[in-house]
Every structure is written in structure tokens, then in C-alpha cells.
TrEMBL record:
Transmembrane regions: 24-45, 57-76, 96-118, 138-160, 201-223, 235-256, 268-287
An annotated GO cellular component: plasma membrane
Protein name listed in UniProt: Olfactory receptor
Molecular function GO terms recorded: G protein-coupled receptor activity; olfactory receptor activity
Name of the gene encoding the protein in the UniProt record: LOC103210879
Predominant cellular place of this UniProt entry's protein: membrane
Protein's membrane topology: Multi-pass membrane protein
Matches recorded under Gene3D superfamilies: Rhodopsin 7-helix transmembrane proteins (1.20.1070.10)
Similarity comment text for this entry: Belongs to the G-protein coupled receptor 1 family.
Domain G-protein coupled receptors family 1 profile: from-to ranges: 39-285
PROSITE patterns: G_PROTEIN_RECEP_F1_1 (PS00237), G_PROTEIN_RECEP_F1_2 (PS50262)
Keyword field: Cell membrane, G-protein coupled receptor, Membrane, Olfaction, Receptor, Sensory transduction, Transducer, Transmembrane, Transmembrane helix
Amino acid sequence: MMMNNTVTEFILFGLTQDGEKQKVIFGIFLILYLLTLLWNLLIVVTIKTSVTLGSPMYFFLFYLSFADACFSTTTAPRLIVDTVTQKKIISYNECIIQLFAFHLFGCMEIFVLLIMAFDRYVAICKPLRYTTIMSRRVCVVLVILAWIGSCIHSLAQIFLALKLPFCGPNVIDHYFCALQPLMKIACMDTYMINLLLVSNSGAICTVSFIILLMSYAVILYSLRNHSAEGRLKALSTCTSHFLVVVIFFGPCIFIYTRPQTTFPVDKIVAVFYSIGTPLLNPLIYTLRNAEVKNAMKKLWCSKL
């Protein structure tokens, strides 16, 4: 498809063209990105080195934090660098790679959240069979399937992007290569492409969100038979998971489940779920989880 294009590079509009605001954006997002990497990598290292965090829940949390760090890295560094450069140029190939990586790690996060909800359902609703159902082999297979599903989804996005011919203009009204802004500058009717996008990304976000809500509803209903202490512990764990789900899926559904139209708030919403969510996830899990905090303290003390 690239041979049919007269455009070989794109110019990213960014969040703003105001020089003073760009300086503020540079400082804020540099700090946020570094904190995101620090916190998520800290969770990854803690789970990897701790002998007390060997349960399936922490096995999946390891991959969620890894996906968060990579997901943020697909967009944040580019945004930070572009605030201090005059021309925010990205080549066609770089744009396609960024699009692939963005959907790969974003979809991986969705699938890991689904697996974590299933893990909590088994732990709370079928406690006697938990170790049998959620064996190490099953956990590994679930993660592998999540990676395979994420790759298939990302390849579908690339297939749609490669169908778009570009003959100018080449300015993308966004701070990274997303399919919706690309469709706006494509030299063709993109109605069918947008329909496929909604049926792909939109369906994944919506269906996953509904499944997660149903799973937590079943879990809450089953808690009526537990002791007060058991209910409190289960509610504490599920509340942190539910917060992550709402924070991540709300913006995603807003972006990917509507007709081909854009709003000024779209870029802010994209910032929230592509940079904000990976930053908030480790805070939500560590602040509400005594086991993770204790493991981090032991790791810190051992290093000192």
C-alpha cells in the first residue's frame, strides 16, 4: 500500500501548538512517565523476586504491570520529545509500528484484566477447587492466549491502516498515530473502515467491560455466604480491580464505540487511558494490598 501513497511521513499536531503550554506539558508528562515506569517496574521486580507473592493473582499482576509500562512507552516518549522539537515528524513505517504496539499492549491489558477477574471468581466462589483450577500450567496457558489474542487484534488494526491511501494533507490531529485521526486524512471514503474499527476495538472494549461487570456482580452475590472477615478481604481485592476496570474501560469505550466523528476532548481522553491508567494501576494495587507493600519493604531492606 505504501507504493500507492504520495505521503511517506506525517506531522503530529500534538496536544497544543502553544510554546508555553508545550514547556508545561514537557515537564508534567516527563515526571508522569518516569513515575509510571518506576512504579510498574518496581511491581514487576517485587513479584519476580518475592517468594511470598507466588499466587496466580500476582502472576497476572506481573503481566499487567509489564503491559502498563510498555503501553505507556508506546506514546509518552514521543509526546515528551515532540514538545521540545519544532517539527513533529513521524515516518509512515514508524506510524504503523506505533499503531501496532499501542493496540498490542492495550489489548493485552484488557485480556489480563479479564483473566484476573476470572481468578478472583474462582478464588471466592470455588475456594476448595482453586488450586486445581488455577494451576501454574493453566495460568501460563491463559497468559499465552492473551498474547496471541493481542497480536491478532493488533494485526487487524494494521490491516485496516494499510488499506488507507494518503495523498495529502499529512498532519495528524493527535499526539500519536491512532486509526481515527489517520482516517480523517485518508484519500478515500472511510465509512467501512470505521465500521470495522468499531466492530473490532469497540466490540472488544464493550464486551470485555460487560463480562467484567457480570463477573464482579456474581462475586458480590456469592459473598453473602461468607464470614464478615472473608467478605471484607474479598471486597478489598475486588474493589481495587473494579477501579482499574472503570478507569481503563470508560475512556476506551468513549473512543472506540461511536461513529466516525471527533471531539476536542478526544486527545485528553486518550491521554487519560494511555498515560494516566498505567500510572494509576500500580498505585491502586499497591496502596490497597498489604502483601505487595510488605514484599516491597523486604526487597528494599535487602537491597540496603
